């Protein structure tokens, strides 16, 4: 999201009259969600009761598509509900400084001690099974990279992958370790 989009969203959320627009959008997504739920149920029935393999495969592909759309609708409803609360001044505002959260050392939640090489520490990667350490924590940048194919990033990215949580949940949890 670029700066212009952020400014536009902030302006929209600051205007109380936008609360009704957000409510209408939420109602629209709830109607779509209900339709998607009905379609998921219908295609689930077709998958289990189809006579031919081709019919089952077609029904299963539609079932998966509608399941994805249902999850998307749920996300939109949740986002619109929160945005409406912000417009009406009812949302709980949590101020967390992400730059402070990024200072939490990766080694703090790695568990076992690693092999230190100057400003780098090698660990066995917690994201996959391995015999030889391929996970490197770069202390000076507080970043990591797995040379076994899991990628890399900062402490927030690692926490999100380790605990299968969203960015918001990760920074909230990591912010509690700052003190």
- The CATH architecture classification of the largest domain is Orthogonal Bundle
Poorly predicted regions: none
Could you describe the largest sheet, including whether it forms a barrel? 5 strands, antiparallel
Write down the Rg: 23 Å
Write the CATH fold name of the largest domain. Helix Hairpins
What is the number of E strands? 5
Name the CATH class of the largest domain: Mainly Alpha
Order of SSEs, N→C? HHHHEEEEEHH
Structural class: alpha+beta
- The share of residues in helices is 55-70%
- N- to C-terminal distance: 31 Å
Mean pLDDT: 81
Number of helices: 6
Q: How are the strands of the biggest sheet laid out side by side?
A: 1-2-3-4-5
Shape verdict: flat
Count of structural domains: 2
Strand content: 5-15%
Features:
179 residues; alpha+beta; Helix Hairpins; DNA Primase, Chain A; five-stranded antiparallel sheet; 6 helices; flat
Give the topology, please:
Layout: H1 3-14, H2 18-49, H3 53-88, H4 98-101, E1 115-117, E2 120-123, E3 135-138, E4 143-146, E5 151-154, H5 155-163, H6 167-176
Antiparallel strand pairs: 1-2, 2-3, 3-4, 4-5
Helix pairs in contact: 2-3, 5-6
Describe this structure as you would to a colleague.
The protein is α+β, with helices and mostly antiparallel strands and 179 residues long. Helices cover 58% and strands 11% of the residues. It has helices at residues 3-14, 18-49, 53-88, 98-101, 155-163, 167-176; strands at residues 115-117, 120-123, 135-138, 143-146, 151-154. A 5-stranded antiparallel β-sheet has the order 1-2-3-4-5. Helix 2 (18-49) packs antiparallel against helix 3 and helix 5 (155-163) packs across helix 6. The model has no long low-confidence stretch (mean pLDDT 81).
């Amino acid at each position: 999201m670029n700066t212009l989009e952020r400014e536009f969203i902030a302006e929209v959320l600051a205007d109380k009259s936008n609360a009704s627009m957000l409510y209408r959008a939420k109602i629209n997504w709830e109607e779509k969600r209900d339709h998607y739920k009905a379609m998921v149920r219908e295609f689930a029935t077709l998958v289990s009761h189809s006579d031919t393999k081709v019919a089952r495969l077609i029904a299963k592909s539609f079932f998966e598509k509608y399941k994805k759309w249902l999850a998307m609708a749920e996300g939109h409803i949740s986002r619109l509900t929160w945005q409406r609360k912000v417009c009406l001044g009812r949302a709980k505002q949590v101020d967390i400084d992400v730059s402070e959260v990024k200072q939490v050392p990766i080694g703090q939640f790695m568990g076992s001690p690693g092999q230190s090489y100057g400003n780098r520490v090698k660990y066995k990667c917690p994201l996959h099974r391995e015999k030889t350490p391929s996970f490197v924590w770069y202390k000076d940048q507080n970043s990591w990279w797995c040379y076994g194919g899991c990628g890399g990033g900062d402490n927030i990215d690692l926490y999100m992958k380790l605990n299968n949580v969203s960015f918001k949940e990760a920074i909230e949890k990591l912010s509690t370790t700052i003190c």
